Amino acid sequence: MTSTSGRPAILIARKVFPEVVAHLQQHFDVDMNETDDVLSPQQLAQRLQGKVGVLTTGSERVDAALLTACPQLKIVANIAVGFNNFDMAAINAAGVLATNTPDVLTETTADFGFALLMATARRLTESEHFLRAGLWNRWTLDMFAGAEVHGSTLGILGMGRIGQAIARRGAHGFGMRVIYHNRSRLDPELEGACKAAYVSKEELLREADHLMLVLPYSAGAHHAIGAPELAQMKRTATLINIARGGIVDDAALAAALRERRIAAAGLDVFEGEPKVHPDLLTVPNVVLTPHIASSTMATRTAMAMLAADNVIGFLTQGQAKTPLNPEVLST
Ligand code: GLV
């Protein structure tokens, strides 16, 4: 469907960088939500009337109800590598192309995973709060004594591109022993490059000094780390979640942290975010960040540009750089 100007019309569902808007405006009539407020499903359906494409973020759900209300939609381009906001069965059934933004955020996200691991193990925010509160009046030998990072065992649950980038940092940068668990084992060549050994989930939980979660969210991954899994971890272990809210049972984690059944956690993602489980706000041994693992200006711009390129490529030439359901391209 085209707009009154004769050009296809698209929607940008959230505020994005001006250069991304300008890039899209070369090809389309662009309607955009110029705020950081999330459109409700009804508002989204309404704004999508007459539009053939949309740039979404993880906050907008694309499901059968939306697709039925917007039958002219041809492409949904997520500005995120994760796409659990997409009902892929409904999108496939509607013959709509879905795209995400892999690769451009891999190294930046792995950097952040390591930042969160370091901050958690070495009690960075806890000690800063102590200092800011004016409580530092003497030095003591065991002051904020944390967990060793170099030479320790790094466990990685989910060994996709980001997991591998974290493994390389741990093995090559910090001399860590790296073990991982994944649905499928990596090729020996990749395992060698990451210096990572494949283990069962049970062994991963038991052996890791630092357990990093990097797996995609799916119904099967819901509460992959809950009370039973936390109980298998070392009491000295740290848990880092840069994957998705819902993979960890946040209530169970808060209880484990309060009772010191594990030493500490670093969390960038939460169940029901931007809400955070109130119990997590009251335990000291957790580092909390607001879903910013890929957030550098360069990377967030690259993600939005890739989503824009997918929309432009598909609507002008029938091609997309990072399709999730490429079968749609050949129909
Ligand atoms: C962020 O969480 C992403 O999926 O890119």
Question: What would you note in describing this structure?
Answer:
The protein is of the alpha/beta class and 331 residues long. Strand 1, helix 1 and strand 2 form a beta-alpha-beta unit. The radius of gyration is 22 Å and the shape is elongated. It has 2 domains: 130 residues, 3-Layer(aba) Sandwich (Rossmann fold), CATH 3.40.50; 183 residues, NAD(P)-binding Rossmann-like Domain (Rossmann fold), CATH 3.40.50.720. The chain has a 7-stranded parallel sheet, sandwiched between helices. The protein has a 5-stranded parallel sheet with strand order 2-1-3-4-5. Helix content is 37%, strand content 14%. It starts with 8 loop residues before the first strand and ends in a 14-residue tail after the last helix. It binds glyoxylic acid. Glyoxylic acid (GLV) binds next to loops.
